[in-house]
Amino acid sequence: MRSIQNRRALHEYSIIQKFEAGISLMGTEIKSIRSGRINFKDSFAKIKEGECWLMNFHISPWENAAYFNHEAERPRRLLLNRHEIRRIKAKVEEQGMTLVPLDIYINEKGLCKLTLALAKGKKTYDKRDALQQKDLQRDKERSLHFEK
């Protein structure tokens, strides 16, 4: 299945390291994810009491559910190994990094997975440089395409 990406994160942050994590979800949440009704805006992960939690991740309520629907922005537990959690916690506390979700997808076994990244925030001039490099690359590809 296709993955749904957080394109804003790649613009706002420079990615240091990526991790793959499972998510603890309710039945109506997985149905909404499969239909693509999610929003990454302002979402982040934090480590609290030895567990990793996904915060402010919006999954729209399933319209066909009657009573057993879910709350749209509830904290969701991320399924990581204890060793990975300890390593991530050390980097977040010591080096001032943040945990940002990059994309969410359903793997071949039918399980929902989230790609989580250790990231540092970009300065405004870094963002401008990245956009300029992207434009130059696009122009170069365009000129090569027209020469053929």
Please provide a written account of the structure.
With 148 residues, this protein is an alpha+beta fold. It has a single domain (4-122), classed as Small Protein B, Chain: A, CATH 2.40.280.10. Helices cover 35% and strands 34% of the residues. The protein is built from 4 helices and 9 strands; from the N terminus they run E-H-E-H-E-E-E-E-E-H-E-E-H. It has helices at residues 7-12, 27-34, 82-95, 124-147, and strands at 4-5, 13-23, 38-39, 44-48, 51-55, 58-59, 76-79, 98-106, 112-121. The chain has a 7-stranded antiparallel beta sheet with strand order 1-8-9-2-7-5-4. Strands 3-6 form a two-stranded antiparallel ribbon. Strand 8 (98-106) and strand 9 form a beta hairpin. The longest helix is centred in the C-terminal third of the chain and has 24 residues, at 124-147. It is globular and about 60 Å long. The model has no long low-confidence stretch (mean pLDDT 86).
